[in-house]
Specification:
Glutaredoxin; 7 helices; globular; 40% helix
């Protein structure tokens, strides 16, 4: 990606090169026209240098640490896995798409845990923890299951489930996957952080 550096968007030469118009002195531009051309220049510059979208900026954010309980009541922190890639799966037992995604996530866990991947299933169930334990046992889920809460849901902007979040070895969120499907793309994204 090219680096833009500091650019004087008020420069008549820059405007003429961007818009193929002859350079005018600043006195010839009305203030409104200058503001319009400066705004257009900024848009063109940002587009040409690949500015990031809001979702891409959030993908570069450091993953929020959390303390959640696992199935055995042990407190687990995200920071416990510092230096390892992590796949967070926000799900619930009542969510059919979440249920459908579990075999694929279990497959990824088995395939890549030996290479350092940590899979954390964050259950967003509101009911009793016993029902989640039973569900996990029946489905043969071998990755770590944590009981989610409002804080972690807010920190990770969980608006719909299933939602998968890939965190790289440096602790940065690099990708989010919403819903099910796209297993090949998910696996590709996981391989990229191993």
């Amino acid at each position: 990606m090219a680096h833009a550096g500091r650019v004087n968007i008020d420069s008549p030469g820059l405007l003429s090169s961007l818009f193929s118009i002859p350079a005018f002195s600043k006195k010839e531009f009305s203030p409104m026209l200058r503001m319009l051309l400066a705004t257009l220049s900024a848009v063109v510059l940002f587009a040409s240098f690949g500015c990031t979208t809001a979702s891409e900026k959030s993908n570069a954010a450091v993953a929020a640490d959390f303390k959640l309980q696992d199935l055995n009541g042990k407190t687990v922190k995200l920071s416990d896995f510092k230096g390892k890639p992590v796949l967070l799966d926000f799900w619930a037992t009542w969510c059919q798409p979440c249920r459908d995604a579990i075999p694929g996530i279990e497959k990824l866990h088995k395939a890549y845990s030996g290479q350092g991947l940590v899979v954390l299933g964050v259950s967003m169930d509101q009911g009793g923890w016993d029902s989640v334990r039973t569900f996990v046992k029946e489905r043969g889920m071998t990755y770590i299951i944590l009981k989610g809460n409002d804080d972690v849901s807010s920190d990770y902007q969980v608006r719909t489930i299933p939602m998968l979040v890939i965190i790289d070895k440096t602790g940065k969120v690099v990708k989010r996957h919403l819903g099910i499907g796209g297993d090949d793309e998910l696996e590709k994204d996981i391989k990229a952080v191993l």
